Structures are given as C-alpha cells and as structure tokens.
Amino acid sequence: MSVDGYIDDASDVRLMLSGPGDYDLVDELRAGCDAVLVGAGTVRTDNPRLLLRSQARRQARIARGTTPDPLRVVLTTSGDLDPLAAIFTSADAAAVVYAASPATTDLAERLGVLADVVDAGDPLDLTTVLADLAGRGVGRLMVEGGSVVHTSFLTAGLADELRLTIAPFFVGDSAAPRLVRDGTFPWRPGAPAELADVRQIGNDVVLTYALSDRFTRQSRQR
User: Fold this and answer.
1) What pairing do the DSSP bridges indicate for beta strands 116-119 and 204-210?
2) How far apart are CA 216 and CA 203, in angstroms?
3) In angstroms, rounded to a whole number, what is the distance separating the alpha carbons of residues 160 and 162?
4) 7-11, 95-99, 180-184, 185-189: lowest mean pLDDT where?
5) Tens digit of pLDDT for each residue in 68-88?
6) Structure pTM?
C-alpha cells in the first residue's frame, strides 16, 4: 500500500505501487504456500494468473513432491466471473471457486471444467471455505486480496500473519481503495498486532505482523 494507506488510485488505470523486489517477494511467498486466494473483484480488475514467475521455484516445488504452482482460489458472492479470465485459461494450475449459494449453479455451468465451483453458503462463509481447503490438503493459504477479502479475513480473526509492503508514494485521494474497508478488527490500541519483522527492499519497507499464536508455531516450523 502507499504511505497513506491506499492500494490504488481512483482512476480507471491501475496504479503500480509494487517494484521488482516486491514482486519477487510475492513470488517467494506464493511458492511457500499450498494455495493463493483472491476475491472476484481482483479477478475482474487485475486479471491475475496467480502462477509463480520463477521457474526455479516451480522446480523446487516439484522436487518436494507438490504441484509446480499453488492451488488458485477465488471467492465470489455474485458469481460475476468471466470464463475467459486468465486464472481460468492458464491451464498450468488448478482453480477452485467458492461461491455464495444463489450463484453456484449458474457459475458452475458457465465455468464447466475450468474450475471446481463449491457452494460456500449464503452468505458466503469463510470457515466453510477453509474447511474445504483443508480437506484438499491446503495447510498454508496466502490471501492476496483485494480489500473486501482482506477485511473479511481480518474481521473474522482468521489471519495468522500479515505481510504489508509500504511503497514510497502518497495517493491522497479519499475515493481510492484502501488496504481494508471499514470494519471491527480483532485488535485495537492496547492490544496491538505484534511486529515480528521489518525488511527493506529498495525504497519499500515490508512489515510482518503476528496476528495469532499460530503464527509463532508456524514460523518455528519454517
């Protein structure tokens, strides 16, 4: 995000806040996860493939006996997803879409074999999503965004670790999207998140926060 807390500006053109070093860090984090999750808004806006950029990291995953790329996961309430989106047409990795119940049948028909569409309740329930992912062997999930998804995981207290890159820019536009939306979060002044690590990448700063006691156990295992 920008220094003043925004992840984009209010224009129709995507604001590029990340530099090469940050993109490589994201690739490194993806490589260490079993699945990468985004919301449907991110798919519509950014059209990501969610595949690893580094062939060396893909080969390292194969050597560990896993898939070259993490499982790709999308959350949607409306079912408004284009079957031609890159996440569905890049056949290098599997994709799972968790949809709110009213959108499930139609979306499954439109996506066909491009993705496994799962009914996640009405309204869409994150605990259902996580339970199903665990049943698919997902032990470490990377939640990339966007702001609606970030807010949902944080307010539900389901995030163990927060990696936050601060880019050396100001956006200064109250109409622009922020990292999270309005919500009641599981920490407040007096019970702050624990700062676990600070890392500089060029002019960017990467902050790692521990949000649960599970973070400590997982960190010791890595």
Assistant:
1) unpaired
2) 28
3) 7
4) 185-189
5) 999 999 999 999 999 999 999
6) 0.92
DSSP-derived 3-state class of residue 177: coil
Using CA of residue 54, residue 59, residue 64, residue 67, what is the dihedral sign?
positive
Place of tokens 């890049």: 90
d(CA 75, CA 91) in angstroms, rounded, equals 19
Q: Which of 66, 104, 72 is nearest to 88 (CA)?
A: 72
Q: Give the fold, CATH level 3, of 20-221.
A: Dihydrofolate Reductase, subunit A (3.40.430)
Q: Can you give the residue ranges of every domain in the chain? A: 20-221
Closest CA to 4 of 147, 188, 168: 168
Return the H-helix or E-strand segment holding 117. strand 116-119
Confidence of residue 218 (pLDDT cuts 50, 70, 90): low
Q: How many helices (H) and strands (E) in the chain?
A: 8, 8
pLDDT tens for each residue of 183-196: 666 666 667 789 99
